[in-house]
Amino acid sequence: MSLTDLKFKIDPNIKTPMWLQIRNELFDCLYKDILRPGQLIPNEKTLVGLFNVSIGTVRKAIGALEKEGILIRKQGLGTFVCQHDDRSFLFKFFHIFFNDSDVKHIPEVELDSFKIRKANKTEMKLLNIPKENNKVFHIYNKLGFQSKVHSVDKIVIAAAKFSLLTEEILVNRHNTIYNLFQNKFNVFITHTSERIKATLVDKKISQMLGIEMGTPILKIERLGYTYHDEIVELRTSYVNTTEVEYIREQYSLVGE
Amino acid sequence: MSLTDLKFKIDPNIKTPMWLQIRNELFDCLYKDILRPGQLIPNEKTLVGLFNVSIGTVRKAIGALEKEGILIRKQGLGTFVCQHDDRSFLFKFFHIFFNDSDVKHIPEVELDSFKIRKANKTEMKLLNIPKENNKVFHIYNKLGFQSKVHSVDKIVIAAAKFSLLTEEILVNRHNTIYNLFQNKFNVFITHTSERIKATLVDKKISQMLGIEMGTPILKIERLGYTYHDEIVELRTSYVNTTEVEYIREQYSLVGE
DNA sequence: CAGTGGTCTAGACCACATT
DNA sequence: ATGTGGTCTAGACCACTGT
């Protein structure tokens, strides 16, 4: 099924601007899997014919999706659906830096454990898991640099959404987890929310981090969202901030 | 001095697009104090005459500054310079929420101490303070809700940039500190960067927070920037995350 | 080279807010 | 009623990319 096979009706008389209608139609194509991450979308002229509007209107719709991080325009090439292989997307949601350094380091990731188990109530609610098929994957990753672990990530995802995921697939991936989600399971993480607390490390995590029990660490609870604000990943990061820091730069973009 | 009194020359033949040239000219007006926060800028038609371009080009320039959080368009009214009184700007850089709550609470702020002292080396470097006139204001604020303190902010700013600041002015402000910076000292905070660590609270801060020494807390080091990436504020926040959390929502905006 | 998106024009008409 | 920004048109030309 290709986008150009579809017929769209854009109504100039309703309250919603035509460019927003087009933006929503294109967004739905992502959701409905007619467009996939990395794919080239039809050029502007084709879209003009498809939606029967002028080129400026198409450009406004594409511009909106570009701002949202859904599409990316490349002059001379075309407009593509963003993916987690793109330079700008890799480690987009990774915020750990070395002390006083402005350079994001790419962490070494090592799988610590991989389990399948029943979801608890919170997980069932957040991940929208039905009672009948309530299995989740439960993963522990160790993150570090030069064999020095600074973080432990606990990841919980619905087994139904990531069926056929195995420890082997997870270990043998050659990219980020979000890239794996995208390519093998067609789940594209669009945005995240994080809640950060300071706690004393417990026994289990202290062993994984290789630090003394009772050391203060960051506990970061992340929700990973995909299209239409659907939560698909629960991640808890435990960070030993002795040698690294959590960084946030905030420009006053109104949207944020 | 008004914007409409000036003459601008936009060159269509150079590499920089005309809309970017216009964006830069308008930005410089902010920096040079020809435009001030809250002020209404000339309407689009006037700008068309001023820059001698078509209206679409002006709109693109304004759109860029709007995305940056510098200008805000209000249909039917005009385009204004953003200020820290605007709904969307108030507490834009405040990220503390109650546990599991999605509502940002507006904290009660109480001045704890106000001092003037010499800057140390780091402060001189970051705030670009000369050797001759190297005084800084050193402020401690307590933040909380219903008389329960959850955070302590240590603020350091150059005395030269905020001359005439007194404890009284600080206490009697009826708005955020960034609003005070903007209105009394003409310093507009455009963006910030924060580096977060987990630490054990020391004696001084534990007393201010009213908690036991050795409790784990967040230590957040913030740099506050104004136009042209000039650092004007050093702020260290110490947060007791027993009842509150630090929150970050990240949409995949390419710019961030 | 042909095809892509990026810039720019010179309007028209609409929705919204104030007077 | 007037003036503001918001939407939309129907093009032209430029800059960039891969063949």
Write up what this structure looks like.
Two copies of one chain form a homodimer. With 256 residues, the first copy, chain A, is of the alpha+beta class. The first copy, chain A, has seven helices and ten strands. In chain A, helix 1 (18-31) crosses helix 3 (55-67) and helix 2 packs across helix 3. In chain A, the strands form three sheets. The first copy, chain A, has a six-stranded antiparallel sheet. A two-stranded antiparallel sheet of chain A has the order 1-2. Chain A starts with 17 loop residues before the first helix and ends in a 5-residue tail after the last strand. At the A-B interface, strand 7, strand 8 and strand 10 of A face strand 8, strand 9 and strand 11 of B. Strand 7 of chain A pairs antiparallel with strand 11 (244-251) of chain B. The first copy, chain A, binds a DNA duplex (19 and 19 nucleotides) through helix 3.
Largest sheet descriptor of chain A? 6 strands, antiparallel
Order of helices and strands of chain A: HHHEEEEHEEHHEHEEE
User: Most extensive interface, residues per chain?
Assistant: A-B, 40 and 40 residues
Mean pLDDT of chain A: 93
Oligomer category: homodimer
Overall 3D shape of chain A = elongated
Count of runs of 4 or more consecutive helical residues of chain A: 7
Low-confidence stretches of chain A: none
Tell me the strand order in the biggest sheet of chain A: 4-5-6-9-8-7
Number of strands of chain A: 10
Beta-strand residue percentage of chain A: 25-35%
Which class of secondary structure composition applies to the elements of chain A? Answer: alpha+beta
Distance between the ends of chain A: 35 Å
> What is the rounded Rg of chain A?
21 Å
Q: Classify the helix fraction of chain A into a percent range.
A: 10-25%
